[in-house]
Amino acid sequence: MFETAIAGSLPKPSWLAETEKLWPEWRSSGAELERAKADATLVWLKIQEDAGIDIVGDGEQSRQHFVHGFLARVEGIDFEHKVKMGIRNNRYDAMVPQVTGPLRLAGRVHEAEARLVRAHTAKPLKFTLPGPMTIVDTVADRFYGDGKEGRIRLAFAFAELLNQEARALQADGVDIVQFDEPAFNVYMADAAEWGVAALERAAEGLECKTAVHICYGYGIRANVDWKETLGGEWRQYEQVFPALAKSAIDQVSLECLHSHVPAELMRLLDGKDVMVGVIDVACDVIETPEEIADTIGSALRFVPRERLFPCTNCGLAPMRREVAEAKLAALAQGARLARERYDR
Ligand code: ZN
Q: Which of the ends of the chain has fewer CB neighbours closer than 10 A, N or C?
């Protein structure tokens, strides 16, 4: 009961990449970089296990960014000529690669890190991939056509590639494949209309657990400012959850602590496992076990105990490493306290 997990990303050690950045530069290249990525992955695996996290991951140590890491292995994308684009409905500008031709996977994307983690832990392993709709919102398309029709074509083209990689990850021994779809909270109507269908295409045929993470973004300034404009009640999930409840996806990861998401919206996920965000990634204050157990307690009013997985609100990538380590330990302690409190 109350098995803990993290949304996905963890800070990169200073010897691997620049710290406290969303798109950090690597510190080395070639074989040395590959060695450093593997070392960082093992360090974080050990830290997660020592903290007492139940469902572990690779901390996304091998990818520069959660979307562009996947794109690096996709043919039909021009990484040489990035363009500036407003992403997440112009919330912030990013330098994004361009889609210039038909998309195809050049080979495996995450084989090395998935197999590495699998070989070093007996715990359930969750592996994250970007969702198709969020990828579409993080590239500039010059090939699949304008308007909504073009975006849908592009999303399903990516979904097919994601599905290939997801099936291969399953064969590597991954227990849960999670797709990250922060764009679902930005384009809610599109998400319900075709985003969930594209997500299901990405997860098609998987026999391992499938999950989707939908959040209000990393704890960066642009996101914190955006949240200020969302008012006292955040009801974005209300438009997407009914479509997800009907979908084949098994688990949904959502933001809870310190958000203005009405907890009763979790009721809309009837029949799904719910990864409840009990750790705030936008502030450095470490949650107390009591606070975490309280958050779990309030979610319990709407999610059955066997379906509730305490989790972080989002990835911890841009945080300071010490803060992230303390938050992982707090997450496990809070879940332990909740087990004592709510076990009957
Ligand atoms: Zn997130």
A: C
